[in-house]
Amino acid sequence: MTSSTAGTHPPSEAADAVASVNIKLPEFWPSDPLVWFAQVEAQFANKRITGQTARFNYVVASLPPHIALGVRDVILKRPDHDPYDKLETELLNRTSASERKRLHELLSAEELGDRKPTQLLRRMEQLLGEKATTFDDSLLRELFLQRLPSQVRMILASAGEVTIQSLAELADNILEVATPTVAAVACSPAPPSTDIAQLRAEVDHLTQLVHELSTRDRYRAQRLRRRSPADRSPSPQPPSGVCWYHRRFGDRSTRRTKPCNYDTLPGNAPAQY
User: Fold this and answer.
1) Which DSSP state fits 231?
2) Is residue 24 part of a domain?
3) CB within 8 Å of 98: residues ≥ 6 apart
4) Which of 81, 105, 129 corresponds to the end of one domain?
5) What does the pLDDT look like over 89-139, one tens digit per residue?
6) Are residues 119 and 185 in the same domain?
7) Are residues 22 and 99 in the same domain?
8) Sign of dihedral through CA atoms 118, 120, 124, 129?
9) What is the number of domains present in the chain?
10) How far apart are CA 107 and CA 183, in angstroms?
11) Is residue 233 part of a domain?
12) What is d(CA 25, CA 78) in angstroms, rounded to the nearest whole number?
C-alpha cells in the first residue's frame, strides 16, 4: 500500500512532503515583496522543494489575511499549470500597485505651510524612505508642484527640463521675492490698479529670471562644445592709450577722447577733426 501510494506522486512532490516538517517561511513584507520571495525561494532551495503545487501551498499558508484577500481569486481557484509562478506574479503586481497608492496618499497629505519648498521636498523624500530611489520621478514632481502656490507654479512652468531639486530651489527664490508683495495685495479689500500692475511686472520679471537660470547652463555647455581650441584663445587686446572712438572706427573716426595717442602709432593716418 505504501509503495503504491508513493508511486502515484511525482518525485519532487514526495520530496516536498518529507521536507515540509522543517520549513518555516519568513513573515510577508508588503513594502518589498520582491525581497520576500527571494528569501522564500532560498528556503525552498535549501530544502530541495521544487514542486509548483508545494511551493504554492507554502506561500498561501504564510500570507497575512489582508494580503491573502488581495489574491483571493488565485487562492480559491488554483491555476492548473505553474500555480506558484502565477501566484508570485499576481502578488508582486497587486502589492506593488497597493504600495504606490499608499505612498501617493501619504505624500498628498503634506502641505507647504510655513516651510520653504526645499524643506517640503526633503520631507516628501523622507516619507518615501528607501523607495525614494525607485519612486516615479514624474509623479513626485507632480505631487510636489501641487503643494506650491498657484503663482509659483505659473512661473516654474517656464523652467523647462530641470531636476526637481532645482525646481525647489527656484521656488525658494520666487517665494522670497514675491511673498511680501502677494501678502500686501491680499490684505487689501480693493487693491489699486497700480498695485496690480506692479505685481504683474514682478511676476514677469521672476518668470524671466527663472527662464534665464534654467537655460544659462545649457547654453554655456553648448558654446563650450561648439568652440574649437583656437576659438578659446584670448582675443588680442587693443593698443594701450587709444580712445574708444579710434578703437571702434580707426582712421574713419571724427572724434576722440583725451588722452589718445592713435596718431602716433605706426601706419595710422593723422586724424582730421
Assistant:
1) T
2) yes
3) 30, 70
4) 105
5) 999 888 876 677 777 777 788 888 889 999 988 888 887 776 667 677 888
6) yes
7) yes
8) positive
9) 3
10) 27
11) no
12) 20
How far apart CA 45 and CA 234 sit, in angstroms, is: 69
In which band, very low, low, confident or very high, does the pLDDT at 193 lie, cut at 50, 70 and 90? low
Owner of C-alpha cell 500692475: 197
- Buried b / exposed e over 247-265, threshold 16 CB at 10 Å, is eeeeeebeebeeebebeee
Residues 148 and 180 in one domain: yes
Domain assignment of residue 43, yes or no: yes
Residues 49 and 121 in one domain: no
Using the structure block, give the residue that is written with the C-alpha cell 579710434: 246
Cell of 166: 532645482
Express each pLDDT in 257-271 by its tens digit: 777 777 777 766 665
CA distance 273 to 267: 19
Q: Is the domain of 117 the same as that of 220?
A: yes
Residue 246: give the domain boundaries.
238-273
> CA triplet 26, 29, 34: central angle to 5 degrees?
95
Among candidates 265, 266, 267, 247, which has minimal Cα distance to 257? Answer: 247
Please check whether residues 98 and 158 belong to one and the same domain: no
Same-domain pairing of 70 and 162: no
Collapsing DSSP to helix, strand or coil, 125 comes out as helix
DSSP structure class, residue 239: P
CA–CA separation, 119 and 171 (whole Å)? 11
Task: Look at residues 146, 140, 52, 33 and name the one whose alpha carbon lies nearest to residue 95.
Answer: 33
d(CA 166, CA 60): 46
- CA distance linking residue 259 with residue 238, whole number of Å: 15
The C-alpha cell of 180 is what?
511680501
For residue 136, count other CB atoms closer than 10 A to its CB.
12
- Residues 122 and 195 grouped into a single domain: yes
Task: From 50, 70, 105, give the residue that closes a domain.
Answer: 105
